[in-house]
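$ fold --in a.seq
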Amino acid sequence: MRTICVLFFCFVSCSCQLQSTLEQFRRIFNLNNSPPVDPSVNLKKEYDFIVIGAGSGGSVVANRLSEHPDWSVLLLEAGKDEIFLTDVPLLAALQTVTSYNWGYKSEKMRTACLGLVGSKCNIPRGKGLGGTSIINFLLYTRGNRLDFDQWENMGNPGWGYEEVLPYFIKSENCTLCDDIDRDYHGFDGYLNVEHSSYNSPILKAFLESAESMRYKNVDINGGDGLGFSKAQATMKGGRRCSASKAFLKPILHRSNLHVSIESRVTKILIDPATKQAYGVEFLKNKKKYRILAKKEVILSAGSINSPHLLMLSGVGPKEDLERAGIPTIQDLKVGYNLQDHMAMSTLVFLVNESITISDLEMQRPRFIYDYIINGKGPYTIPGGALGYGFVQTKYNNTSDYPDIELVLGAGGLNGDVYGSLRNLLGIPNSLFNRVYLPHLGTPSFSIATVLLRPKSKGRVLIKDSNALHWPIFRPNYFQEEEDVDTMVEGIKMAIAMTKTKYFQKYNARLNPIPFPGCESLPFATDEYWRCSIRHVSTTLGHQVGTCKMGPKTDERAVVDAELKVHGIGGLRVVDGSVMPNIVAGHTNAVIMMIGEKAADLIKSKWRNV
């Protein structure tokens, strides 16, 4: 929180140039062109389409459906509108301790998060216009072409890479000039993609080290599945370009689109006899609303809330619904197939020169001034991530298909003086004081190891029939030993990078203090890393798969290839929960692609009706 105060202080301290500063401030944060959403919209009793959730899927669908002037669209969002502080890329971790995060936690497990607060995993999910795209780390990657070809081969026609690539391109407004495969990018879409304006010597060492290990510097969103690059991010002019800012704010003038914030959907209305969805119930300002849908209800509440809402509405595993006292309308494996990316984000590499960032470094007035006035500098680093690399371990023999991502962080946890990053990860203060505090003030960076293709799968379960009670989150991280083995190899690759001459000119070295719970094992051995992975690995917030897309012959499928819920009319799911397998990359861009394709599927059905 202190960084925020300093940010405000710097702004106020520039009062001698107040008028010009205000103009620059408005330009950077686009205040004139991004009107706030009216919380008191006059709701109608009936709409053609009702979209539940204004995240990366719902925002896109609401935009594209409201392009048809004769169709009325209601977009319901449980959270509130964004504020300018959510737009500062480097402050991404801070958003997870605000009301913009649902604040979910997992159940205790024997296989993961053993050393975190309460021995539970933090599960950050966005609550507000833009959904998780207002609290994520802004990294723009699309996954690998083999991910989508697998989707299609699993019985989902139209979801192969060649079919989905045009939808990625349609969304994107790529402002990158160098080192991109232009044939794979869009340049006139709603979603702005750019690099941070900040260049660090650590990033240069990262990319040079990769080349010395025979990995190319590539456009990872282009034709190559393996390689390293500076981070591409969903930013515009150095500020966050959330799904809301990209797809909703430019179209709020459309009279056929109503956006209702702070509207908590509690049930999808489904006729038990005809099995037809016909509306929704939701709470707003302590009042219950019941609004009907003439054509379809589109569920885009995310991989935790979408399955929860389906189960609250009578669609889900019969045995779970009976336990919760909810009549079963359609018996489907809702909530199964949960997949996520776990990361070892807790490794710190110390260096001898002040070429990294920390909470203390970021209080320098010149950094704050440069961001507020010019939209430049280290505050534009997306979540602190300078670059990433997609690599293969010895366990992976599929050509051009990574199983590990390495993410370069501009600073280390020992610089997390005010606690935003450790609060995000769930790092206890006792662990921080023991492992990181002895190196307070020492320049450092991190390389996070990300498990891209986990074998372990979990579940989201309903707790009871009360719509305001959280669901049960049982992720089963590292239940499969192969996932741990792959992570160990990824960690060793990250450490090997820091031993090249490009990092050694800064005397890069791994923090030698062992993690609590693993001290008895020889430091930096495979056994030590296996223990550390189970104690201090954390989620990237890429939960997907809980409303699996697949044909009727797939007993765990919830929606078909057109994203229609099996056995229920007038109801589709459009978010990350439909992914049959998690992609080998970050999920935000993929969910927007799903929204684009879903909108075309819906338009195709209703255009001539």
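$ fold --in b.seq
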Amino acid sequence: MDDAAPVNWEALDALVIDFATSENLIEQQPQESLADSPASPLSPLSPSSSSVSSSSSSSYHSRLIIRQIRRCLAAGDIDAGIELLRAHAPSVLDDHRVLFRLQKQKFIELLRKGTEEGRDAAIACIRTALAPCALDAYPEAYEEFKHVLLAFIYDIHDQSSPVANEWSEKKRSEIAGLMTSVLRAHLQAYDPVFAMTLRYLISIHKTFCFRQGTTSPISDLTERLLMEERDPPAVPQESFYEAPPFDEVITVDIQALAHAVELTRQGAVDSLRYAKGDLFQAFQNELCRTKLDVPVLDELVREYCVYRGIVRSGFVASAECKVNQSEPGRLPSQNYSLEVDQATSIPSDGENSVITMHLDVSSENDVVVNSRPETDIEMRYASESTGNCEDCSTSEMQQPDISKLLQRNRNYTSGERSKRKRWRGRQDEQEYLSGVAYSACSKQDLDAVVARADIGGEHQGIEKQSTEDLNNTDDRYEIVLGIKDLAARGMATEVVEQVNALDPNFFSQNHALLFQLKQVEFLKLVSAGDQSGALKVACSHMGPLAANDPSLLKPLKETLVVLLRPHEEMLGKGLPLNALANSLQVAIGQRLGIEEPQLMRLMRAAMHTHNEWFKLQMCKDRFEGLMRIDSLKELETPLLSACSMLSSNADSSTQGSSQVTTSSSARLPEDGTSPAQVSSGEVCDESAILKVMEFLALPRADAIHLLAQYNGNAETVIQQIFA
């Protein structure tokens, strides 16, 4: 079974740029600010790009505050956490449920010191704060208050004591996670869309593989990237626990949320009520509870940004290539996993850790951010080179004069190259920490975390490459990105010239790519009115290529039909040049030993399982628009078929029809492969499906299969199950 799906890489570029800019991972120009970033239109929280722009910087600042509060609570410094709450979110402390839990943990932390002063402070805490909160926090609070007083009697090391759980440092993680959930919803400080989309897609991927009994082809990435543990949910008021009556409208939202983020029905009800019935806000609240390993995520994003020309390539070290070659499929960043919970009393929270595996970079080579709005599709052909070792090796290639090739490349793309950014990493978190009173989150604790994250040179100090090796790596990236940029701009002649200078044998193994380039050249000549020049290209190149490859004969005929009715506007809009540029980048990169980034492999597999999962569910994903998954499925028409559209449009115009406008993008083909086209309405009534799901707590697909056995009658299904 095919385990990959085509992805709109331009749409993924936009998501990744949004993430890197929102998290301040890339260096901004002096005139730029976080609020001016290209992330603005992607925010799911507001339809207005201007309002999103004004809130981008504050959202980032809020996330830093939340991480700081989390670290203080996780380190046992409850007072510092409360002070930060009073300064930045005072209304959160008005909820006595939250305040009681904080004061109860503060009481334990004071006793944990084991000193007379700590004991006296714990007694004062009981009298002035904990006992008053226990009276009206929630019905069970007073019983919990009396129970925690046993900590005065039982030793911290007594694992059989009735308060052993209260002494556990896991309680710190729980209260820190709870406050993170509460603050995230209160401050509307959600993670960038890309981080939430990855969580969602990976979760669906894991569920699909488990349900189908198949092995995940990306398990090496998903297991390290998405953590199993979740933060506790934000605490609802006690009145929320009333079970709502069965109502189809309400139930649709409950079931959609429950199955999207793997909640119980009651958990979905509580989440929706906490979000005041806003399904999408509840979905974001629940999705962000799952933790991502941020060092791994950052490395995936950095690798992708370098490959796509979003950030500069000066820091792509050959040492990293050596790691990847010795352990295929393994990111260098996995050596930097954070495991600091036991040693430092700070939980191993990759998502909120202050430590980032930052590799500083040279700032010499400027490159391009591919900001074209057009969509894109990955294009593969049988003749296109794959990841074979012989294709990736440059040892058998004729080595050109690299300096001349680079200079020629720069002459064409110098204006675009300056748009590329410098990767800066998560420097702001360290800077932010230095400006905030950290109190009991002592410098020693922080130094211990930093020391472990730096790995003392054991991992970070992978042997340094020589300047010559680094330059060679940079040069290869520059050459491939330059050729990609030329292809995206339709400069087919220049692309062929550069590729032949780089590897004269490349096109002999990639006939389809050469045909498409000549196709672009042909259409540009027709558009310019040079029909004789276009025919010369067809006779000299396209004809011989089609003669050797019968699959190219049909595109050749369709291309020639354009001669009958050249239409400059159609030619300009109808060519999916990004698709061709991306295919060239993949093929040429592999010839030079540059492998595709692992994020591409992850996205292909995850998009495939997303499609398959909702085909099984026989419904459309209600959250795919919010998570920008729909934009990742908007695919360009392949270049080999573009001329067919152009020629048919030209024929229509000759018959006196009105002006025809064509779109270069389309959804996945409506051949049953798109979950958006699959409906359960033909199988049974939606109300019946919901009733069976509700009463039997079944997934949607199972409910539909049961209904199909009993003619769609929900009452009969329920009676048979309970009979």
